[in-house]
Automatic annotation (TrEMBL):
<dbReference type="InterPro" id="IPR000048">
    <property type="entry name" value="IQ_motif_EF-hand-BS"/>
</dbReference>
<dbReference type="GO" id="GO:1903479">
    <property type="term" value="P:mitotic actomyosin contractile ring assembly actin filament organization"/>
</dbReference>
<dbReference type="InterPro" id="IPR008936">
    <property type="entry name" value="Rho_GTPase_activation_prot"/>
</dbReference>
<dbReference type="InterPro" id="IPR001202">
    <property type="entry name" value="WW_dom"/>
</dbReference>
<dbReference type="GO" id="GO:0051015">
    <property type="term" value="F:actin filament binding"/>
</dbReference>
<protein>
    <recommendedName>
        <fullName>Ras-GAP domain-containing protein</fullName>
    </recommendedName>
</protein>
<dbReference type="InterPro" id="IPR023152">
    <property type="entry name" value="RasGAP_CS"/>
</dbReference>
<dbReference type="GO" id="GO:0005938">
    <property type="term" value="C:cell cortex"/>
</dbReference>
<dbReference type="GO" id="GO:0010761">
    <property type="term" value="P:fibroblast migration"/>
</dbReference>
<dbReference type="Pfam" id="PF00612">
    <property type="entry name" value="IQ"/>
</dbReference>
<dbReference type="GO" id="GO:0005096">
    <property type="term" value="F:GTPase activator activity"/>
</dbReference>
<dbReference type="Pfam" id="PF00616">
    <property type="entry name" value="RasGAP"/>
</dbReference>
<dbReference type="GO" id="GO:0005516">
    <property type="term" value="F:calmodulin binding"/>
</dbReference>
<dbReference type="GO" id="GO:0007173">
    <property type="term" value="P:epidermal growth factor receptor signaling pathway"/>
</dbReference>
<dbReference type="InterPro" id="IPR001936">
    <property type="entry name" value="RasGAP_dom"/>
</dbReference>
<feature type="domain" description="WW">
    <location>
        <begin position="87"/>
        <end position="120"/>
    </location>
</feature>
<dbReference type="GO" id="GO:0005634">
    <property type="term" value="C:nucleus"/>
</dbReference>
C-alpha cells in the first residue's frame, strides 16, 4: 500500500501480475505433486522410481547421485517410519514453503492446492517435506562422497596404516628381543634341562616298550621288507610290460648293430675270430627252397630286362617313324618310303617276338645245348663276367669310340651287360665302370678343366641317360613337379627379360587400346628400348617375378637334394676328386662350378625347360604348354643355370646386371647345400659274388651279341 489515493494500476501491470501469479501457482502445484511422487515412490519401495522422482526438476533438489538410489530409498523409508511411529493424524493436507516466502496448501487426495489456509488445517505428520528429503539426500551424498574419497586414496591410507603398524610391531619386537637377549642364559638353561629330562623319559619308555615287544618288531620288519621287495618287483615288471615294444626295439637295434659289426669283421678282417665265424656258418647251408626262390627272381629279372630293351627299341623305331611321317608331310620323301619303313618295323617286331619265344624254349637248361655250344656259352660267361667285374676294358673302350657313333649303341650294350642295374650288385659294378671310365677320360683327354663343360664327355652323357631312367625320373618329378605346376597354374605370370620384346609388347598394347597406329618406331635397339620409362618399369616387374619363382625352384632343389639319385651324386664326387687330383691348382669354387654344371645343367635343366617331354607334369590328351609358359620356364632355367655356374649377366645382358648379387647368393646356396656327396658304402667283390646261390646272369639277344662283336671288330 502506498497510501496515495491518486495511485492507480495500469492494465499492463495488472495483466503482468495475473500472469506471474498463475505461473507461480503452476510451479507450486508441480512442486507439491513432485513431493507427493517422491513420497509415493518411497512407500512403494522402488529405488529406480524414487531416483527418477528425486531428479524431477519440479522439486528442485540438488546433490542427487544415481549410485546412491538404494540408499536414498532406505533412508527416506526410515524417516517415514520414524514419523509414523510418533503417531499418524491422517490429515489430507500438507503445507509447502515455496519461492517468494509464501505457503502453499496441497490436498493429498485430490492433488489440488491453493494459497489460502483451509479451515481446520492440520498438516499431515507422516508426509515427507522438501526439507526432510533434502537433508536426507545431503547426508547420503556426503557419506558417498567421503567413501569415494577414501577409496580413491586407499593406497595412501594403506601405506600409512602399514607404516604405523610396522613401526609398532618393530618396536614391540625390539623390546621383546632386548628382553630375550638379557635373559638368554636363563632361557638356555631352562630349555636344556627340560629337553634333557623329556628326552631321557621318552627314551626309557621306548626302550622298555621295544624290550617287551621284540618278537612283534622282528615280525613287522620282516613283513614290511617283504612287502617293499614285492612292490618293487611288481612295479619293475609292470614297467617292462608297459614298455615291451620299446624294449624289443632297443634289443633289435643292439643286436642289429652287433650283427653288422660282426659281419664287417667277417668280411674285412684277415683272421676273423671263431665266435664271429660261428655266427654265420648257418648261412652256408642253403636249402632247396632258397635256390628255387633265387632262380625264380632271376627268371623274372631276365623277362624285365628283355621287355625293357624291346620297349626301347620299339620307341626308337617309333621316333624314326614320326620323323619319316613329318618328312612326308613336308614332301621331303615319298609315301612308298614310309610304307617300306612300316613293313620293316612290323617284320622287326615279329623277329623280336620269335627271339623271345626261342629264349623261353631254351630255358630247359644247359642240357638242351650241344657240347660245342655249351663251351661257347661258358666262354661268353667268362668274358661278360670279366667285363663286369673289371671295368678297365669297357672304360678304355667308351672314351675311345667316336661320340657321334657310340652314344646309343654303347648305352644299349653297357646297360644290357649290367642288367640295367636291376640289383645292388649290378648297380655297384655299373657305378664303378662309370667311375673308372670318367677317371680314364679325364686323365687321357682333358687338358683344361673347362673341357669337361665344353667337351660333353661320353661318360657324363651315359651317367645322365642312366639316371633319367625310372628311378631318376621319379626323383625329378618329386622335386620339380610341384613348383612347375605352380608356375603353369599362374596365368598372370609373364616373364620377359628382353627390352626389345617388352618394348614391342608395350607398343602393340597401346595400339590395341587406342585403335590407332603408334607414332613410336617398331624396330629399336635394346638401348633405345631401355630409354622408355614404361619399358624399365615392366622389366623391373619381370625381374622381380623371376627372382620370386626362381627362389621357389631353388628352395625345392636344395630341400630335396637327398632325392637326387645316388649315382648322380657319387659321380659328382668322383668328378670333383679326379679334377682336383689332375688340376691341384684349381680352386674349390671352380670345381664346384663343374659339379653344378653336371647336376643342374645336364640333369635338371632339360626337365625344367621341357617338363612335358620328361613327364614332370601330366597333360591332357592333345594338351601342350603355351608360349608364355615355355618362355617363363626358359627364363627360370636360365637364372638357375647362371646361379649353378656362378655366371654373371654381362655384355648383351647388361640390363640384367642388377640381379648379379642375387646370382652370387644363389650360387652359395647351391655350393653349400645343394651338392652333398657321401662315400659309397657297398663292398661287392668277386669273392662275394661267388657266395650267391646262383651266378649272376645278363640277358643278351643274339642280334645284340652279333652287333657287339662286329662293332668291336
Amino acid at each position: 500500500e502506498t497510501k496515495d489515493d491518486s495511485a492507480v494500476l495500469w492494465l499492463d501491470e495488472i495483466q503482468d501480475g495475473i500472469i506471474r501469479s498463475n505461473s507461480e501457482t503452476e510451479d507450486a502445484q508441480r512442486f507439491a505433486r513432485g513431493i507427493l511422487a517422491i513420497n509415493e515412490a518411497v512407500e512403494r519401495g522402488d529405488s529406480a522410481q524414487t531416483l527418477s522422482a528425486l531428479r524431477s526438476p519440479d522439486v528442485g533438489l540438488y546433490g542427487v547421485t544415481a549410485e546412491c538410489a538404494q540408499t536414498y530409498q532406505n533412508e527416506l523409508s526410515e524417516v517415514k517410519r520414524n514419523k509414523a511411529a510418533q503417531g499418524e493424524n491422517g490429515s489430507e493436507w500438507v503445507q509447502h514453503w515455496v519461492k517468494g516466502g509464501y505457503h502453499y496448501y496441497f490436498n493429498l487426495h485430490t492433488n489440488e492446492g491453493g494459497w489460502e489456509e483451509p479451515p481446520g488445517f492440520t498438516p499431515n505428520n507422516t508426509h515427507l517435506s522438501k526439507e526432510d528429503i533434502q537433508s536426507t539426500i545431503s547426508g547420503v551424498s556426503a557419506a558417498y562422497n567421503r567413501e569415494q574419497l577414501w577409496l580413491a586414496n586407499e593406497n595412501l591410507i594403506t601405506k600409512l596404516q602399514a607404516r604405523c603398524r610396522g613401526y609398532l610391531i618393530r618396536r614391540q619386537f625390539s623390546d621383546r628381543m632386548k628382553f630375550l637377549r638379557e635373559q638368554t642364559p636363563a632361557i638356555t638353561c631352562i630349555q636344556s634341562h627340560y629337553r634333557g629330562q623329556k628326552q631321557r623319559k621318552a627314551f626309557r619308555r621306548r626302550l622298555e616298550y621295544l624290550n617287551n615287544h621284540s618278537d612283534e618288531v622282528v615280525k613287522i620288519q620282516s613283513y614290511t621288507r617283504m612287502y617293499q621287495a614285492r612292490k618293487r618287483y611288481r612295479d619293475r615288471l609292470k614297467y617292462f610290460r608297459d614298455h615291451i615294444n620299446d624294449i624289443v626295439k632297443i634289443q633289435a637295434f643292439i643286436r642289429a648293430n652287433k650283427a653288422r659289426d660282426d659281419y664287417k669283421t667277417l668280411i674285412n678282417a684277415e683272421h676273423p675270430p671263431m665266435a664271429v665265424v660261428r655266427k654265420f656258418v648257418h648261412l652256408l647251408d642253403q636249402s632247396d627252397q632258397d635256390f628255387q626262390e633265387e632262380l625264380e627272381v632271376m627268371k623274372l629279372r631276365e623277362e624285365v630286362v628283355t621287355l625293357l630293351r624291346s620297349n626301347q627299341q620299339l620307341e626308337n623305331d617309333l621316333n624314326l617313324m614320326d620323323i619319316k611321317i613329318g618328312l612326308l608331310v613336308k614332301n621331303k620323301i615319298t609315301l612308298q618310303d614310309v610304307v617300306s619303313h612300316s613293313k620293316k618295323l612290323t617284320k622287326k617286331n615279329k623277329e623280336q617276338l620269335s627271339d623271345m619265344m626261342a629264349l623261353n624254349k631254351q630255358k630247359g637248361g644247359l642240357k638242351a645245348l650241344s657240347k660245342e655250344k655249351r663251351e661257347k656259352l661258358e666262354a661268353y660267361q667268362h668274358l661278360f663276367y670279366l667285363l663286369q667285374t673289371n671295368p678297365t676294358y669297357l672304360a678304355k673302350l667308351i672314351f675311345q669310340m667316336p661320340q657321334n657313333k657310340s652314344t646309343k649303341f654303347m648305352d644299349s650294350v653297357i646297360f644290357t651287360l649290367y642288367n640295367y642295374a636291376s640289383n645292388q650288385r649290378e648297380e655297384y659294378l655299373l657305378l664303378r665302370l662309370f667311375k673308372t671310365a670318367l677317371q680314364e677320360e679325364i686323365k687321357s683327354k682333358v687338358d683344361m678343366i673347362q673341357e669337361i663343360v665344353t667337351g660333353n664327355p661320353t661318360v657324363i652323357k651315359m651317367v645322365v641317360s642312366f639316371n633319367r631312367g625310372a628311378r631318376g625320373q621319379n626323383a625329378l618329378r618329386q622335386i620339380l613337379s610341384p613348383v612347375v605346376k605352380e608356375i603353369m597354374d599362374d596365368k598372370t605370370l609373364n616373364i620377359k627379360t628382353d627390352p626389345v620384346d617388352i618394348y614391342k609388347s608395350w607398343v602393340n598394347q597401346m595400339e590395341s587400346q587406342t585403335g590407332e597406329a603408334s607414332k613410336l618406331p617398331y624396330d629399336v635397339t635394346p638401348e633405345q628400348a631401355m630409354s622408355h620409362e614404361e619399358v624399365r618399369t615392366r622389366l623391373d616387374s619381370s625381374i622381380k617375378n623371376m627372382r620370386s619363382v626362381t627362389d621357389k625352384f631353388l628352395s625345392a632343389i636344395v630341400s630335396s637334394v637327398d632325392k637326387i639319385p645316388y649315382g648322380m651324386r657319387y659321380i659328382a664326387k668322383v668328378l670333383k676328386d679326379t679334377l682336383h687330383e689332375k688340376f691341384p691348382d684349381a680352386g674349390e669354387d671352380e670345381l664346384l662350378k663343374i659339379v653344378g654344371n653336371l647336376l643342374y645343367y645336364r640333369y635338371m635343366n632339360p626337365a625344367i625347360v621341357a617338363p612335358d617331354a620328361f613327364d614332370i607334369i601330366d597333360l591332357s590328351a592333345g594338351g601342350q604348354l603355351t608360349t608364355d609358359q615355355r618362355r617363363n620356364l626358359g627364363s627360370i632355367a636360365k637364372m638357375l643355370q647362371h646361379a649353378a655356374s656362378n655366371k654373371m649377366f654381362l655384355g648383351d645382358n647388361a640390363h640384367l646386371s642388377i640381379i648379379n648379387e642375387y646370382l652370387s647368393q644363389s650360387y652359395q646356396k647351391f655350393s653349400v647345400t645343394a651338392w652333398p656327396y657321401r662315400k659309397y658304402g657297398q663292398t661287392v667283390t668277386q669273392t662275394v659274388c661267388r657266395t650267391v646261390a646262383l651266378h649272376p646272369q645278363s640277358v643278351i639277344m643274339s642280334a645284340m651279341l652279333y652287333r657287339f662283336i662286329t662293332k668291336k671288330n
